[in-house]
Amino acid sequence: MQRGSIPWLAALAGLALFVSGCNGGELSEIELFFNFIRALDPKTVLRIEWSRSLRQPCSNQWNVVVRCKMVSLFGRPVTEIRLQNLNLSGILDAETLCKLPILCVLIFAKNRIRGTVPDSIADCKSLMHLDLSNSLLTGSLPAVALSKLKNLKRFDISDNHYGSTDPQLNREARPPEDVSHGKQSSKNDDNPRKHWQSWMVVLAMGVTFVLLLIFFTKLKAVQAAKDTEITRELALSLSPPKSPHVEIVVEEKAEERHSELVFFIEKHERFGLEELLEASADLRWQGHCSSLYGVRLKNNATFAVKRLKKLQVSFEEFGQTMRKIGNLKHQNILSLVGYNSSKEKKLLIYRFQNNGSLLTLFNDYIEGKRNLPWKLRLSIAIGIARGLNFIYQWPEDGEIIPHGNIKPSNIMLDEKEEPLISEYGIAKFLVSNKARFFNSSSYAAPEKRLTEQADVYSFGVILLELLTGKFAEMQKNGLDLPKWVKAKVREEWTGEVFDKEIEKFEMYGFSLLNISLKCVSELPGDRPSISEVLEKIQEVVTAQEDISSSSTNSVESI
């Protein structure tokens, strides 16, 4: 995709999916990369630090070369890592590194890498170029493991310390005996048995050299298109089987098929699955079992596509839930455009929001790029409360689906900066490992359950962020925002909790602070319902509007 065609994708940075705990427990690509770097660079020469905001290794935010390749709409894995001449002094964690699916080039020359080349290097099936030269590697080469790298064309292990540990190499590199030993040395030189042993060593080394030469010659004979074939196979594995004359349906469950897109929009806005798969796309975030893509169709329509995998849910149950969510319409909830469901993956399609998320706004505010005035903060607070209240008042059949993951990255902002709650209805499918799911968020309630009370707690944390200007997941010192605010209130330093933008509106700020502190109560039973929260915030909004109106009338009368 050309540079000029994707500036609109920057706003998607805030629409990061939550790191969910689905079955399987695989690490995301960014986590694999970070774990590998941590082993390779224990002295943090590269200054690469883990952050929840990191979405993928190929973000060009570090002074290293990490390249990715667009495989299809649903894949942009790492293909190349170059870290030469950087004084790295760790070990080569191939077990972690080789979990990157189509890694083709590894260049770590001119470093101080220690240890051995592990047998797990055999898992780098796509590796074509491996350069570990000029380092401090020891031990013996894993010949069996290397022989399994069928795509390897270039391999450089020169100028390491293998001679210090390998018996044969030691013999080859042995210095001549000191001539001062005189006759004893001559005697040893004339010993036929010694000559025989020397010739055997030379012969063994010669045979080994010839075998290695044949091995690498055959490797070089592998066609250059091999990596392309691997990429194509990966892309095909991610694409659903084609079916002729696929008809797009909206809500008739009996007509749904696994290869279809099910839409909740007007017919003239719909598109086919093949068109979606061929669209220009950019991976914006990747987690344990979910990924987020920005997509531009050929007609320039833009969408956010979320890919979920390894969900332990039946096709029928997932479809039933999605149809229910697709029919939910509210001005403060991001509508589901459509979905696709198959055994391997689920696709959820939303309209692209140019203003990004509340997390984007928080980031821009911290960096001084955008203002966050009181009026906007209040509008965001009441908008989220209205959306949540609708979720819990809406079901006619009595079945309530809690949100379960309320946080700034899941609050989008429309063109008028009205908040839109996204990710609704997905958490119920992603909590098979509850500890991992709930511990991944600073907004999760202490009881770690999917309930209205838990959603109220999460909303309370966001409300505290709007009031304090401190953002839970952006604090380097690991600040627990609810505890920090409660401590300030106990010490009667309540006025100090407010952000500078709130100073002129402290009267209303105190009212919202009382509401937020009730929301983040430790015990679920001590928290108000979302309808009670909405009522209190509405009182603040009404009071401010009344004062603003009276002030305007006073000015006009003068």
UniProtKB/TrEMBL annotation:
Keywords: Leucine-rich repeat, Membrane, Repeat, Signal, Transmembrane, Transmembrane helix
UniProt xrefs under PROSITE patterns: PROKAR_LIPOPROTEIN, PROTEIN_KINASE_DOM
Signal peptide, first to last residue: 1-24
Subcellular location per the Swiss-Prot or TrEMBL entry: Membrane
Keyword presence, Signal: yes
Any Pfam family the entry gives: Pkinase
GO CC terms: membrane
Protein name (Swiss-Prot/TrEMBL): Protein kinase domain-containing protein
Source organism: Coffea canephora (Robusta coffee)
